[in-house]
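Q: Got a minute? One more chain.
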Amino acid sequence: MLDDLDNQLFFNRTHLCIDATLRGLGIAIGDHLSCGEHLRSGRLFQLPGPVLPGREQYHLLTPDTTHLSRPVRQMRDWLRKAAQK
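A: Always. Here it is, folded:
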């Protein structure tokens, strides 16, 4: 499903990933420690779906779900399926 995505961004630093998401470049997986302020302020919000168990919680984040591009929707759907396994 994800093989047909032409423009992919990958970050190895949480703050870069969150910044890209805030700028509308896609979605992110983040923990509450890194994303809590943005979640509380409403700049980002958690998409409906499972929260991955562990010492930290990770949330699928996006600035706006009403205007998600097809590739972003595909990535979101893939992540949701993977999280349910």
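A: Residues 11-84 form one domain.
Q: Perfect, thanks.
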